[in-house]
Amino acid sequence: MTTALSLPQHTVHGEGGTTVFLLHGAYGGADYFDNAAKVVSDAGYRVVVWNAPGYGGTELPAGASIAGYAESLRALVQAVGTDTNVVLGHSMGALIAPLATNAEPAIHGLVLSSASAGFASRTPEDQKRYLAERLEPIENGMSVAEYVRPLLVSMMGPGASGPLVEHVREVIVNMSTATLASSIRAIAGYDGRPALAALTVPTLLLAGTEDTACPVAGMRKIHEMVPGSEIHELEGAGHYGFAESPDEYLGHLLDFLGRNFPATPAKN
Fold first, then answer.
1. Does residue 126 surpass a pLDDT of 90?
2. What range defines the domain where residue 166 resides?
3. Summary count for the chain: helices (H), strands (E)
4. What is the CATH number of the domain that holds 20?
């Protein structure tokens, strides 16, 4: 069991005996999963969407770390989970989810969306580029809103458009700059390879072929690291497949859930 923690801010959608937890990335927050939460809950699943500590206007934790976020997720699953629990982690959430899954018996399945194996797995050149694009503007006094739009264009596929894409952009533009900086530093201090290699639960990988933040080549390597995992590549999609190619993304998700964790009625 985890130690006593304040539960992360979260919302619950739908009812059922199988709960799907949705974890956002460093950029954004719970709100960009609005459509995904509706589609999955309409399919008969109970969906819990979290804001990681420091997101959604909550207090920014001192010394934020991926390990700390993982303990917060465990506390949330223990508090609001059901008999069967599946965690979908997107981007930063895909670093948090494996670490929590390996330590928490109440997590039975995993979906890694636009994932990486952690900062330490990147080449020195890629590490430098990653921090230059994401952290240096903040350290030079810029807000997320002032620098992020061109970066988001580069992270998405060339044809990314529509209301779901615009919703993702607006959620990110309006997020806390201090929260983002804290999360990027947490990511930069984490190596996710040991947690990935230790996974034993059914695992689905969802990769965008045009994702520059978490390239598909890296997700193929994760697929090789995680025994029994399956991978689906979203042709033409970038980092936000759930908004750029929602029908394909959510179709793969619901197929994986249906085969491994069918929707069941909630217990009275």
1. no
2. 10-260
3. 12, 7
4. 3.40.50.1820
